[in-house]
Every structure is written in C-alpha cells, then in structure tokens.
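User: For my dataset I need records formatted as: sequence, then structure tokens, nothing else. Please produce one.
Assistant:
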Amino acid sequence: MSEEIQLRKIIHVDMDAFYASVEQMDFPELRGKPLAVGGSEVRGVVSAASYEARKFGVRSAMSGVQAKRNCPDLIFVRPRFERYKEISNKIRKIFLDYTDLVEPLSLDEAYLDVTQNKKGNPSASLIAQEIRKRIHDEVGLNASAGISVNKFVAKIASDYNKPNGQKTVNPEEVERFLENLEIKKFYGIGKVTKEKMYQHGIFTGKDLKSKTREYLEQHFGKSGGFYYNIVRGIHNSEVKPNRISKSVAAEHTFNENLTSEIFMLEKLERIAAELEKRLKKYTLSGKTVTLKIKYSDFTTQTRSKTLPYFIADKGLLLETAKELLFQERMKDSVRLLGISLNNLNTDVKKTVVVQLRFEF
C-alpha cells in the first residue's frame, strides 16, 4: 500500500432509487410497479426510475418516449421536489447524529467522514450499518453504503451491493479492489473517456495501473495524473461539510416546443423569478449570467455574459437573459430554457484534517 494514501474512514451513503422509492412509499398502489418520475410517454426526460422499471432498461436522463417503448406498462408520475427535500432533510439529521463532516452531493447521497465520530465507534462499517437501519426504521426507505479510506473508493463501493446493501474496502484491499474493477465502473470516467481508454487497451484497473504517469498525461492531458493516482488508491479530497456552490440555476422543459421569442420571454420571466428565490434562500449573488437553450432536436446551446457587479435581482437576471436571447436567431424550435448564475460571492474556507491510522 502506497505511503501516499491518507487513511480516513469515509462512508458514502446513496439512497436506492430515491425519488421513485418516495413515490412508492407515499402511494402504496405504486409499489411493485415499473415507475418513472418525470417525463411522459409524449415528451420530457425521466428523472428517476424504480427498480421494477430498470429491469426493462429504463434509466434517468432517458426520453419518456424511449422509456415507454422499453416498458409499455411504465407509469409516469410528476416529481414532487418539496417532498424529496423534506425526506432528504430527515436523512441528513440522522447523519449529523454521527458526525458534523457531512458533504451532501444531492438530495439522495452524501459523504460522511467518521474517522472521529460522535458515537466513539471505531468501526465505520458498523456505523454505516446503523445509519442504514435508522433510515429504514425512521424514514421508511432503503439506502446503500460504501466504506473505505477515501471518497473515490467509498463512492464506487456504495454501488457494489445495491440495492439495500453495503461494501467495505479495507485499507489493505484498496489497490486489489481497484485493479479488478472494470474501467467503466470508475467514478468520473464517462462514456467518452471509457471509449478512449478502450482504444488504449485499458479495460480494467489493472490495465490502467500498468500505464506510466507520462503515458496517461500524454494521452489524457491533465486528467492523466488523476487517473494515475486513483487506481493506486490515492485521492486526498476532504469531506467538505459546507460545499461551495459554483452556480445556481433554474430551468423549465415545455409541454410544447416554443417558436416565438415572445412566448420565450414570458417563460424566462418565471425562470428568473424562481432563480431569484433560490439565490435569496442561500444569500447568494453572482456576476456571470448564462442562458441555456435546448432545441427540439435535443442539441443544447449556452450564451453567457459577465457583469462588472454582483446581481441576484430577477429584473437584472431577466434583462441580461433577454439580451442573450436576442444575441442571435434561434436555429430551431425550443423545448427547454434555463438561466444560471456563476462567479458567485461565496468564500472558500479550508479546513485542516488530521490523518489517522485505524482498523476498519
């Protein structure tokens, strides 16, 4: 085991089919049935799918039309994000009973650093087991967990025994675990990078480990050094309880494609109002406004403008978005519009983490 590996006790908790499971919990008539949250058989995109639907190849980000084609009995339900947030907050309170070092990635997953924890429990595996039981007993949902020495390995491990399971990768097992893993299962290696790695004869962690740092940097640029380290279990990113937002966005997919800028302006006004509400909730403002346009052929275009001052007001957001909208003619009818704000007024705070050696 490389001496460069910093030993922490990290748990990655990932809720099982979260949105769909909440719907099935709240509406018993949906239990055991193939379910898609979001989208429809006419248009839109699936946000989440129940495990019953996944057996038919229904996945998040799939078009509703394709999902229905895969699974003719598929039931579509509208997402209820306020309800999902409510459940997510209950789960987060359970996490905080064990450690203050909780880094949420989304409503349904989070990292926990339990190297030193409020229960004084030396076993991260037992803590994960206890957390999963509490989520089941107190909230009514199933969660899976991965436990290891860093965020990267814990994230991969949480997917290993899904649903409703957990996987611990002990310090001495990390490198062997990664060597035996298919490269497509490495967190952060997407479809394009996977195909490129295949072209270089890299199909497993062992194949990746056989390449020198120089080789990887030559063929994969700056990411080469990252790949060189992670396959050796070196990933020293800390669990950050107050993740710094890089952008805040609001967007809307329309039931019918829009062809007129007049109708688009009306929609942008509502989107700007929603974005203002989100910014005020977290006391945020920013300088760079980005307009997102998704056309009927599913191609996406973004247009941005950076202002000399911070804004959060819907009027200024809308004014800038309008300017970006009329920057050039639409190339097709529009199915989605969104506004995001970047270059936020967030202060990055660094924390010092003491590394300890321990038994899992």
